[in-house]
Design brief:
Elements lengths: L4 E5 L2 E5 L7 H8 L18 E4 L2 E4 L12 E3 L1 H4 L3 H12 L9 H14 L5 H7 L10 H14 L1 H4 L2
Parallel strand pairs: 1-5
Antiparallel strand pairs: 1-2, 3-4, 3-5
Length: about 160
C-alpha cells in the first residue's frame, strides 16, 4: 500500500497514488501526458527533462515522485501559454535557436528560472543559468543571444 503524493502541477492540485520511487519524469509523461520534458541521459546531466520545482530548476529524471510531496511543479506545458513563456519561446524562434527541438523545453525552463531571478543577466550569468542543459544542434551562442532578446523584449514582464 502506497501513501498519496500530493503536489501542485502547473497550478492544479494533484494526487499520485503509486510507487513513490517511480521517476517524476515518467509520471509526468505517462500518467499526466505532459510530454514536453524529454529523457536524454536519464542521469540528470543533459537538462532535457528540466522542470521547475518550488521555483528552482531541477532534472525530473532523477527525482522520485515521492520527493515532490507538498511541492509546486511547473513544466513547459505550464508556461508555454503564459506571457513569460510566450516571450521566451518567441525570442528563441526569432533568434533562430531552435533546430531539432529536443533540448529546447529544458532550455526554455532554464531561461524562465534565470529571468525570474535576474531579469537583466550578463552573458556570464546566462551561460551559468543554462549550464546544466546540453544542446547538440544549435549551439550556445544563439541560445545566449535569444535569452538576451527575451530579457530585452520582456523587460516589463520580468520586472513584475
Amino acid at each position: 500500500m502506497y501513501n498519496d503524493v500530493r503536489f501542485k502541477l502547473n497550478g492544479k492540485d494533484m494526487i499520485y497514488t503509486g510507487d513513490p520511487l517511480r521517476r517524476l519524469l515518467d509520471v509526468l509523461r505517462e500518467d499526466y501526458s505532459l510530454t514536453g520534458s524529454k529523457e536524454g541521459c536519464g542521469e540528470g546531466e543533459c537538462g532535457a527533462c528540466s522542470i521547475v520545482k518550488d521555483g528552482e530548476l531541477v532534472t525530473s529524471c532523477i527525482i522520485p515522485v515521492g520527493a515532490v510531496n507538498g511541492c509546486e511543479l511547473l513544466t513547459i506545458e505550464g508556461i508555454r501559454d503564459t506571457e513569460k513563456g510566450k516571450c521566451i519561446i518567441d525570442a528563441y524562434a526569432e533568434g533562430g535557436a531552435v533546430q531539432c527541438g529536443f533540448c529546447i523545453p529544458g532550455m526554455v525552463m532554464a531561461t524562465y528560472c534565470l529571468l525570474n531571478k535576474n531579469p537583466n543577466p550578463s552573458e556570464e550569468e546566462i551561460r551559468v543559468g543554462i549550464s546544466g542543459n546540453i544542446c547538440r544542434c544549435t549551439g550556445y551562442d544563439l541560445i545566449v543571444e535569444c535569452i538576451r532578446l527575451a530579457a530585452e523584449k520582456g523587460a516589463s514582464i520580468w520586472n513584475k
